[in-house]
Amino acid sequence: GAEGGLLRSDDGGRAFAQVARSPRLIRGLWSDGERRLVVCAGGEIVASDDGGVTWAPTSCRGKHNDSLRERGGMLLATNIRSRVLISSDGGRRWKSLETGARRYLYSVAGNRDGMLCAGSDEAVVVSKDRGASWRVVPLEHREYLRGAHVRESGEIVLVGDGGKIHLGDRAAELSAAHAEDGPSLYAVSEVERALVAVGHRDYSPAFAYSEDGGRNWRPEHADDVVGAGRVLAVCGLPDGTFVAAGDRGGIWVRTPP
């Protein structure tokens, strides 16, 4: 991610190799597990059908897209016009959805039942019908919600500045939790009921872990992280492993206890 381009692992995150011709400034990635890759890079959504050897634009043209995610066969992204972009065919065709948000959406997520959420710096927008209709839930105070996750139960988790974490039920009523030491959080992922949120504190990597669906969080620490930059992305694997990536080439792997 970031300036370092695309790295690939075939062993669950134990070793990585550079994809030689990958785009830079990557803000989101999806793979079908075979040869197709879709990335949001430098504001553009581009795709490869040969494992990253060659890349081509998708139908989602323009340089103002961000936050590529996948869930339940849907690819999701946001753009500068406060819209959510959705694709159900591996990123070949995209539909632009009006959300009712008034400001830039920093994060987006969804679950297999078609529940979607996205966060700006003043509101959360929620859809229960794959984007056909949206509810706008204002925040009490302005903050940047850079990471989002929708659990299969329908609960939503959004993370932002100062260690603030917002939890929402299916009615989109928000409650607050908090990560100790107040890190700036950028992303959140889940395996079973375990959640990991990642970010930075004074530009050193920060990690927070929850075992109860996000109600309580504890900080976790990695070795040799001083000055290692921000952790911008995290992915949970089926075996309980979490893999996180930073903006200075760092990769962290959390294995199950």
How would you portray this structure in words?
The protein has 257 residues and is mainly β. Helices cover 0% and strands 47% of the residues. The chain contains no helices and 25 strands. It has a four-stranded antiparallel sheet, with no helix packed on it. The chain has a four-stranded antiparallel sheet with strand order 7-8-9-10, with no helix packed on it. Strand 1 and strand 2 form a beta hairpin. The protein is globular, with a radius of gyration of 17 Å. The model has no long low-confidence stretch (mean pLDDT 85).
How does the SSE layout of this entry go?
Elements: E1 7-8, E2 17-18, E3 26-31, E4 37-41, E5 44-48, E6 56-57, E7 65-71, E8 74-79, E9 83-87, E10 95-98, E11 107-110, E12 116-119, E13 123-127, E14 135-138, E15 147-150, E16 156-159, E17 164-168, E18 174-178, E19 184-191, E20 194-201, E21 204-210, E22 218-220, E23 231-236, E24 242-246, E25 251-254
Antiparallel strand pairs: 1-2, 3-4, 4-5, 5-6, 7-8, 8-9, 9-10, 11-12, 12-13, 13-14, 15-16, 16-17, 17-18, 19-20, 20-21, 21-22, 23-24, 24-25
